[in-house]
Amino acid sequence: MAEVNPSQQPTVPAAQAIHHELRNAENSAAFVLPTLQSMKMSNPYLALLDVGAGSGTISASFAKALPDGHITAVDLNPNILPRARAVAEAAGVTNIDFQQADVKKLPFADASFDITFCHQTLTHMSAPEDALREMLRVTKPGGIVAAREGDFETEAVWPDLPGLVKFHRFAAELMRSAGGTPTAGRQLLSWALEAGAERSKVAVSFGTWSYHTQSDKDTWARGLIAVVKGGPMREKGLNAGLTTEGDLDEMIHDWEKWAASSDSSVAMLHGEILIQR
Amino acid sequence: MAEVNPSQQPTVPAAQAIHHELRNAENSAAFVLPTLQSMKMSNPYLALLDVGAGSGTISASFAKALPDGHITAVDLNPNILPRARAVAEAAGVTNIDFQQADVKKLPFADASFDITFCHQTLTHMSAPEDALREMLRVTKPGGIVAAREGDFETEAVWPDLPGLVKFHRFAAELMRSAGGTPTAGRQLLSWALEAGAERSKVAVSFGTWSYHTQSDKDTWARGLIAVVKGGPMREKGLNAGLTTEGDLDEMIHDWEKWAASSDSSVAMLHGEILIQR
């Protein structure tokens, strides 16, 4: 669920969306694609629900992968929907629609979808197992629920500049203070079992993302600097007393230094589950 | 470099080797294989050096991948060599030989090998950049140096039982006290540049390993319990005052509990570099 300033222009991504919009099905849902392809062979008219779709870049690539299927993309934040529609239009896909919805109470009948997917959504929730239970409810028997969540505690940044160490602690603390889980990736299986899935019907895998080329590092640092400089992280962090102006300045300085270093990189584990409904 | 009790029988793997012998080129050197295949197209007689080969399971699978090539596998510990030869014999490969050697002073002329490889070797060394410099020295111009190292700080274990939290801290401390680096994976690029590689000639990637099926978890827990119960970790840890009998018992208890949990898994990031010589 992208956090977006309500005052933003719909066609201009907010600071946080710079990162979110790097995502597509190939880099963020590769663990689902083989199953998707094999389901498509027996039924090209698959209905896929993308929960917490944000600006919809992953949803749009699912729409391309399922030209005869239909994608329903939902997000808790209604302000992101115009941006998501613009992203889909720019991608040239029409087999998709967007609506506001809360994953805790999805406005869909039982067994509505063949595939229910989320990415980097459960990590922000205080009761992720309830969300998975709801995702299982709206999924057809024989369908799948697929989730991929980062495990922020495994974030590996080099060089370990002091401002980046502070950033990591601050970001984890901020996530926890909002009810989120910085170790979501490793807990997905556990949440799936709490949501009622049988162990034998859950396939577990782990993926990575990393940035180490100059252009990827520039994009990554630019996005983080934007949220630390004037975005929601600054405001929320200062309001909650989790950081100081001085620390925020050090974070900005060190992300700039990091991006300019020849030996820098950032990588993180993602947990992945595929639940057979 | 496997740490092996000198008194062990050569054909019976020591406790630590239970893990090491799960490794092969497919699961531990996948990032090298496409380059290996393309080099093999122009020269089937490739010479590959595997540094810190331990019991040689990765070396043996390189030997299979290069039937007309030749593998030289070295390890600092001469006591592992009989085991490594037995592994190669069991794998049915003969285009391989093993010898004792120190990566800091490799007994080979400059430009002897087309591919020089190591896995989980630099993480144990106090001057990994010197090892990479030496690996570059023995590699032919046009050849490659490939390294893959775990990043132990990213180890993600669930459930986070108290004994496993203690185990993680203890293992990292033990590694550091022996001169090793628990964040090796993220530092590989930095070490390569210190060793004299040009940034434009280093390709960076990150991989994962994880255990989450019942049989993999049983193997993993059995291996760790063996080293904590009576292997080198217990002895070294107690001698260095890094742990207590009580803590070690708690670690054993909780690895057993972990293996028996339906929601358990362990995953870790690995850093990978390919240096064009």
Describe the structure.
The structure is a homodimer of 277-residue chains. With 277 residues, chain A is an alpha/beta fold. Chain A has a domain at 17-153 and 179-211 and 265-276: Rossmann fold, CATH 3.40.50. Chain A is built from eleven helices and eight strands. In chain A, strands 1, 2, 3, 4, 5, 6, 7 and 8 form an eight-stranded mixed beta sheet that branches. In chain A, helix 5 links the parallel strand 2 (70-75) and strand 3 (96-100). The radius of gyration of chain A is 19 Å and the shape is globular. Residues 1-13 of chain A have low confidence and may be disordered. The interface between A and B is medium-sized, with 30 and 30 residues.
Give the SSE layout:
Two copies of one chain form a homodimer.
Chain A: H1 17-20, H2 25-28, H3 33-42, E1 47-51, H4 57-65, E2 70-75, H5 81-91, E3 96-100, E4 113-119, H6 128-137, E5 139-150, E6 156-158, H7 162-177, H8 184-194, E7 202-211, H9 214-229, H10 232-239, H11 245-260, E8 265-276
Helix pairs in contact in A: 4-5, 6-8, 7-11, 9-11
Keywords:
homodimer, 277 residues, Rossmann fold, 8-stranded mixed sheet, disordered N terminus
Short description:
Chain A has 277 residues and is of the alpha/beta class. Chain A is built from eleven helices and eight strands. The two termini of chain A are 24 Å apart.
Gyration radius of chain A, to the nearest Å?
19 Å
- Written as H for each helix and E for each strand, in order along the chain, the element string of chain A is HHHEHEHEEHEEHHEHHHE
| Largest interface, Cβ cutoff 8 Å | A-B, 30 and 30 residues
Low-confidence stretches of chain A: 1-13
Indicate the overall shape of chain A: globular
Summing up helix and strand content along with how strands pair, one would put the structural category of chain A as alpha/beta
Number of strands of chain A: 8
* N- to C-terminal distance of chain A: 24 Å
CATH domain class name of the domain at 17-153 and 179-211 and 265-276 in chain A: Alpha Beta
Helix content range of chain A: 40-55%
What is the CATH fold-level name of the domain at 17-153 and 179-211 and 265-276 in chain A?
Rossmann fold
InterPro entries (chains A, B): Methyltransf_11, SAM-dependent_MTases_sf
Domain Methyltransferase type (chains A, B): 49-146
Keywords (chains A, B): Methyltransferase, Transferase
Protein name (chains A, B): S-adenosyl-L-methionine-dependent methyltransferase
